[in-house]
Amino acid sequence: MNSYPEVMNHMFLGIESWKLVTIVLLPLILYAVRIVVLMGCSKIKKAQVHFGEKSFFQFFLDQKIEKPVSWIVVSSLAFVIIEYLNLPVTLAKYVIIIVKLLLMFNVVRICYMAAEAFGHSMEEWASHTNNHFDDQLAPFASRTLKILVIIVGVLIGLQNFGVNVTALLAGLGIGGVAIAFAAQDTVANVFGTITIILDRPFKLGDTIKVGDTEGTVTEVGFRSTRIRTYYNSIISIPNSVVAKERIDNLTLRDGWVRFRQVAGFTYSASVDQIRAFCDNLHYQLKQDAVVDQNRIVVAFNSYGDSSLNVLIQFHYKLDPDQSDAKKVEDFLILIANIAAENKLDWAYPTRTLHVIESEKSKPLPAPVGPN
Fold first, then answer.
1. What are phi and psi of 200, to 5 degrees?
2. What's the pLDDT at 286?
3. What's the number of CA atoms in the CB half-sphere (13 Å) around residue 113?
4. Shortest CA distance to 122 belongs to which of 184, 182, 76, 54?
5. Which of 207, 65, 68, 200 is nearest to 140 (CA)?
6. Is the domain covering 254-341 a CATH 3.30.70.100 domain?
7. Nearest C-alpha neighbor of 233 from the set 259, 213, 256, 260
8. What's the confidence (pLDDT) of residue 189?
9. Following DSSP, what letter does each residue of 150-204 receive, concatenated?
10. What region does 206 belong to: left with phi over 0, alpha with psi -120 to 50, or beta?
11. What pLDDT does residue 149 have?
């Protein structure tokens, strides 16, 4: 037994034997510690009970925090043990770099999960308020916090590895003009997002029309607004474009929908036919209870290039569970039937060519040759 300390103090490759044994056993020790931490986190997550509205801590535990927590504990313990072993400078340098990388990565990872939990808790809180502004602000705040976590985590990591962050940021300032030109679209989209959130031209779930895109707003992101179209596809429009475009919020129609069509009939139609068509259609619309009786316009409107145009415009009440397309189809069929009753033909683009033959345009007589 007296020889045991002497053996452990023998030098091998410039390192005491007991330190080599500790280094060899260290992975097993850390693995065992990690298993214990994983089991502890799992028991804590299973023991939590939800009562009504979930808290930030409950949202945090709902995520897969076991792995990053276990790696944080293991890397912190490894850092302490390596510092205690007082290994040779070269070996300790590379081992500590690996441990620091592992520690910093998982610290940023757990902070990112905390930001995610904060976003979920904000969305939970916003869902219980009557202010729709909160529904758009919660996802935006969550994404902003995640980006800040990543940026701060990277800067702190660089600082811990000996990088002069102040000098680095100053260096970025020198190339700020080039970066500004490269990131001007991103900056414009960020300001567009802020404008949309503050101005609130629409909210999540509204049916809007932006340019040629029409659909339901599903998400207002950090860079773009996502709209689900009637084709059940998702279109992402940059927020800088949304902020500048004219936005038609179809949800705010208060149930009234405008119907507007220009019916074009051939020039062979008589005045009596046009008048009869207008009177009959106006009468039929007056009988429809869903049509606003004070806003009906059916009138001969203009002379087209190849048609006599009748403007048909009115507003009708649309129930929430009723299809707008089906109602428009009913009105179009009504117009077609009344046009057929009055024997009106639908016009289509035509061209009539008139050839006027004059004396000058007649061909010259053939010359008469010698006999």
1. 55, 55
2. 93
3. 18
4. 54
5. 200
6. yes
7. 213
8. 74
9. HHHHHHHHHHHTT--HHHHHHHHHHTHHHHHHHTHHHHHHHHHHHHHHHH-S--T
10. beta
11. 82
Concatenating the DSSP letter of every residue in 91-138 gives: HHHHHHHHHHHHHHHHHHHHHHHHHHHHHHHHHHHHHTSS-HHHHHHH
Q: How far apart are CA 119 and CA 56, in angstroms?
A: 9
110 in Cβ contact with 117 (< 8 Å): no
User: What parts of the chain have a pLDDT lower than 50?
Assistant: 1-4, 7
Per-residue confidence (pLDDT) for residue 371, from 0 to 100:
52
Taking the C-alpha atoms of residue 242 and residue 219, their distance in angstroms, rounded to an integer, is 13
pLDDT digits (tens, 9 = 90+) for 138-193: 677 777 788 888 888 777 777 766 666 666 666 555 555 555 555 567 777 777 77
- Domain-wise residue ranges, the chain: 3-47+54-131, 184-252, 254-341
Residue 308 tokens, joined: 């006599």
Top-level class of domain 184-252: mainly beta
Q: What is the pLDDT of residues 34-61, one digit of tens each?
A: 888 888 877 877 776 555 566 777 777 7
Q: 80 vs 31, 61, 84, 251, 328, CA distance in Å?
A: 16, 27, 6, 61, 74
For 209, the token pair is 């029309």
User: At residue 19, what is the residue type?
Assistant: K
C-alpha span between 274 and 262 (Å, rounded): 13
